[in-house]
Structure formats: C-alpha cells, structure tokens
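S.,

Sequence below, as promised.
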Amino acid sequence: MKHITVILPLLGISFGAALWAQGGDPNYKPRRFNKAIELLEDGQPIYNANARGGDGYDVGVKLASTYNDFIIYEMEDGEFNIPALRQFMLGLSKSGPTKSGHRMPAVIVTLPVVGYDETSVRANVWMIQQVLAAGVMGIELCHARSPEAVKMLMAASRYPIERANIQKNDLQEGLRGAGSEGFASQIWGMSSKQYRELADPWPLNPKGELMMALKIEDKYALANAEKVAAVPGVAFAEWGPGDMGLSLGFADNHNPPYPPAMAAARKRVMDANKAAHIGFLETVTMASIEALFKEGTNVTHGSSLELVNKGRKLTDRQMPW
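The prediction came back faster than expected:
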C-alpha cells in the first residue's frame, strides 16, 4: 500500500482548470461541500460507488473521477483498517475535484458496530470517532433496531458545541473532542474551525455536511422502523434485503421478486422513511429505475454508468458528475 503525506489546500481555490481537464461544466457552482447532500436538497437521486476496508491511496485516486455522487466504504464485513482509510481519503482528496466542482465525492462508511441498543453503540464510540477523524462524510449504522442507538450515533458524531436543537430533539451533547479535526480538516480542505462547524449531521443541522444513515435490516429493526427513521439527523435508510431475508426466514430472496413478508417489510421501511422525510436506498437496475424512482427510491445501489445516465435523463439533472 502506497503511503503519501500531503498538506492539502484550503477550500475556496479555483477549480476551473481542473474542471476543463475533466470535461466538467465550468459554469456550475457548488453550493455545499457535500455533493450528495446538495443533490438531495435539489430533489435529485444520488448514485453510489463501492470501496472495501483495506482499499487505500490508489483506489482513492481512481474513485476521485467516478461518475457517482458518493462512495460506500464497506467496513462492516470488510477489513477495519484506519490507516488504509486515511490513505484512501488522501488519494480521493488529492485527485479531485469532481466534474461538478466539488472537492470529492462524499464517503460514507459502514462499520462493524450494530445498533441493537444504546449500550452497543456507546461501547464502540471510538470506532465512530476514528472513522470520522479520517475525513469521511458519514456513517451507516447496521441493524438499527433502537432509536436510542441511533441517538448515540448522533452524539458520537458531533462536537459538544451548544446548539439550540439538542434539547428540542431529545439528543445528547456531542462527544467528539478537540484535536480530532486535524487530519479530517485537511481532507476537507478547510481550517479546523470551519471543519468543526460543518462536521455535523444533516438535515438536523441544515448547514451540516455529514450524512448519517441506517440499515433497518432485520425483524427487530423492522418493528421499530418508524421510531428509528424519525431520529433527527438521519439522512437516509435502507431495508437491507439480504439480512432482512435471513431474519424473516428467506435466505435466498436477496433480489426481487420478493415473497409477501419481504415485500411488506420493504414497504414498511419506505413508508417510515417518507414519514420522516429521509431518503430510501435500494438496488436499482436499468429495468426497475423508472418505477422505483416514482415509488420513492432516491439513493441507489448498482450504479453503472449506463444506469446513472438513464437516471440523470429521467430526473432532468443539471449538476455534472
């Protein structure tokens, strides 16, 4: 694995030359640091690329030019390797910007931390904080069974800056400490002060640039779907048909057509997400994309270039890659 140490420039430099080199639209002006949040705010679906724990600098360089909007860096079952993640983020940030003019695609990490209850997440706050300190833009909590677990995820992801919405939303004070922003702020290309202000979950904080997500993926999480989806600070959730199928007794029904019990589980999670006004993630194909978009899917797995181009046309997307 190649290890490279660089000092990254501050936010606000001109991206014009790089945009022209990548074929981007120099007239597009990003409004936010997080490209995926900007698109969701505009009512546009977002598309993902994938990386796995252990992927480092070279993979980051490669994915800096992805046609996707965000990257799921898989450490739930993949290798939990913080040095590799830091190198991945260095490669990604050094090799941008995207064609849309954003510094890099957003990166969301799935962790081997389960949302069974508050205690489960509290015991692993160190994992959450180490991953965020690597400069990623979000975390996806697996097996999100308990709203208390999700609230602990939010606390672990925030700085203890007094915010008016803490008590109003029944949330705890943030747990991230001073100094944790050193590397991450370089990855984001901004000062430590700017990073601490922006490294907060959206849409809980409308100016926040972190995306916190959930996997409501077993029968216990399903029973609490409405409660966990409604925790302030969740950006999107998925129903995880692989694990949901195992939990409901359908080991080989990861893909549609689904048996009635799984179809009902999917609908319940989607309905919970709609009620909470958060995104819904699932696998999308060329054959299903139009119907799924109409139904409410707006965060996609399975984002081939052909599929992304079809999706962009369906939603009249103006932002470049």
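The radius of gyration is 19 Å.

Coffee later?
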